[in-house]
Amino acid sequence: MQDRVDRQTIVVGIDGSRGAVAAARWAGGLAARLGAPLALIAVVATVDFRITAAALAEADIMPTLRQAARRTVEQAADAVRADRPDVAITEQVVEGLPARELVSASEHARMLVVAATADDRISTFLLGSTALQVANKSRCPVAVWRGDPARALPDDRPVLVGVDGSPEGDAAVGHAFALAAGLGVELVALHAWNDPDLLRWVPVPPSNEALAQQEESLLGERLAGWTTKYPDLRVTREVRKSPTAPALLERAADAQVIVTGSRGRNRVTGTLLGSTSQNLLHHAPCPTVVCRTDFE
C-alpha cells in the first residue's frame, strides 16, 4: 500500500461489520489513553477465490466498491469521534487482498486491530479468516477484538498477560506492561506451569514441589526488569498448575484484554500460531493481543 503510518499509530482494519466498528471504538479509546494517532483502513478486495481483477474491471463495479469502502471508514471514524473527539484519525481506502494490505500497514504501526466477527469464527476453521492471517503474519502486535459492542471502550478492568518464559512470551510481557501503564490499570501476570508446551523452556525438577518453586521463580524473573521500569504499576502474580489456555480463559472473565505470545517459527509454514494463542483468538471473551518475534 502507498500510504504509510508511523510506529506510534494504531491501525484498524475496517470491513463494514458491527464488530469492526466496535474494534475501531476500542482502538480509539486506547489511542486516546496512549496519546497515539489512529488510522482506519478499508481494503477493496480486487482478487479472491470468487472473482478476478479482470472481471471486476469489465463489470465496472470498482467505483461502487470504493465508495462503499469509503462510507464504512467514515462511519467508523464518526463512531470514534463521538467517543473521543481528541483522537487524531486518518482514513484510508486501498485496493488489494485484505490480509496482505493490513500486514503491509503493520510494518509501520504500533498495533494492528481487527475484529473477529461471526463469519470469522466459522471461516477460520475452513478457509482462513483475515483476522487469523493477520495474526500469523503481522509485523507488530495484533489485537483481535472480540466482546460486547455495547462495551467496546477500554475501562478499569485489568490487563491479563500469559507468561511462559519463551521469547514470544517475553515480548508479550513487555507489551502488557506498557499497555497496562498507558491505560492506568492493574496488570495480572499469569503463569500456568504444567502445560507440556511450556515445560520445554525450563529443566524439569525431580518433584512437583520443586517444579512449583521453579515456576514461581521463573515468573518473578520474567517480570523483574519490567517491574523496575514501571514501579508504580500494580502487578498481581498468579501461578497455576493448569493448561495455559483454560487458565487464561477463566481469568479473562475479569479482564479487559489478554496479551499473549505467538508460538513462533513452525518448521512447515514458519508463521503458524501456537495452540494457546489460537484458542484465545477463537474463544476469549475480550480482545486478545498477539505478540510475535519471528519476523521474516
TrEMBL record:
Protein name from the UniProt record: UspA domain-containing protein
Endpoints of the signal sequence: none
InterPro entries, A to Z: Rossmann-like_a/b/a_fold (IPR014729), Universal_stress_UspA (IPR006015), UspA (IPR006016)
Species this chain originates from: Nocardia farcinica (strain IFM 10152)
Keyword Transcription tagged: no
Family membership: Belongs to the universal stress protein A family.
Superkingdom as given in the UniProt entry: Bacteria
Gene3D superfamilies, A to Z: HUPs
